[in-house]
Amino acid sequence: MPTENRKISHQPAQNIHPRHNLHLNHVTVRRGGKCIITDITFSLACGELVVVTGPNGGGKSTLLRTILGEWPYEGTIIFSDCQGNISTRPTIGYMPQHLIFDRQAPLTVADLMLANSSRWPVFLSHRQKDRQEISKILEQVDASRLIDRRLGELSGGELQRVTLAFALNPIPDILLLDEPVSALDVKGQALFYQLVLDLRARYDLLTLVVSHNLDIVTKYATSLIVLNRTIRFSGPTRDVLEARERGTTI
Amino acid sequence: MNVWYTLVEWLPFSFLQYDFIKNALLAILLIAPIFGLAGTMVVNNRMSYFSDALGHSALAGIALGTLLGLQDFLLSMILFSVLFGWLLSGIKNRARSSTDTIIGVFSATAVALGIALLSRQGGFTRYSNFLIGDILAIRPSDILILLIVLVLLLLFWILFFNRLLILSVNASLARSKGISVRALEIAFMTLIAVLVTVSIKWIGTLLINALLILPAAAARNVAGSIRSYHGLSVLFSLVSGVSGLILSFYLDTSAGATIVLCSAVIFAVSWLVGRGKTDSREEP
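Predict the joint structure of the above. Result:
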């Protein structure tokens, strides 16, 4: 359960919560009799920023949602902390590719954020203390001015900022981002990845980003997974870059 | 009850001299907030057709009660509608047909089963008051049941509303926060099933769903946040409940139907107001 010291705050990096590694072992996901993902095995360490790329329909989103526990799978998925102790339920921050929701619903950004961070029922009121806390979190993604806007009125980019803030509260052990910057402009994208890098540096969290943008791989990622129903390539970013320089395609 | 009777006698309304009106008014004052609150999430989760089916399934619950030889059908109705809801949501998650088709099939089957069993030897008219309901026949012991349901709903809302809200926005988001999506869905559905069933005798299977949907739908037209959504839904529910009861007394009409008509008027006004707000927002 979230505790105070796991919320975003300017605490020193050495005072961090247990961090998690992620191990997938022969994972296969079937939907409606079809294999979406076949026999995937990989291990990722704390502090890695992994980009998952590959063609459309290659199973990238499915991979994230399987790690999230949304879809049944064969094989094993194990979470462990950096000391190798197995954990049953790490805190996961998830940012879906398109947040599909009822845009007509009378729901503000504060309603959604407070429903997540506070136990106080949001249909009664918003407590000032809780509001200040989420305001700080929204500030980190440059979205504090959106706090009282209706969720359904937000632009694509604004909504992505808010869903990131939602994913980061409490600070997760594993951050799963599904095409997180598709609706952001160039400035917004740079800000977004700078924030992810900051978080990584501060909390040593493992981040998986689904993206088509190879610039991100070269600029920010520590390793890369190319997925087309099964793993076509996985390894540190520098190997990919070297392969590129040699003119080899992956 | 005596405290309530004394309290009501202070009010300057001639129709309040009858005990059955006093009982009905108290019942409405309990039913209205329950339905106003619960309706918000039924509408947000697009479950209005589902709750309609729950209301209709009560007929089969009554039939079950007669088969079991029960005097009071409430228990068999609750049992049947809860089972019906579980079955429906289980199949809905697995089936390939669209949700409204499945609900349609189940709802029709339950109604047909109810009518077939209750009409044996031409005795259906005995049960026709379940179709339109009769709130003027409510007794203090029935009001106690409504009070218990109201307390239960309030407790559930206070403890689980935040999670329910995240779930209503997006199930994947809810799951990422460790919310047991399936358990929460089942708990909410069970609560709606119980709520609808305990009120059917007073409002009737035909109109019970309107009481759940209309105030919340009207509130959604004008509300801008979760708090105002809930506040307005409860307010609309209370206003239409009380005014419907009073009107039905003077017009000599069915209370349930008159309440629903009042709700419909509120909905129409809120729709116009809401449309005006949207138009002015869209103007440059």
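The two ends of chain B are 57 Å apart (CA to CA).
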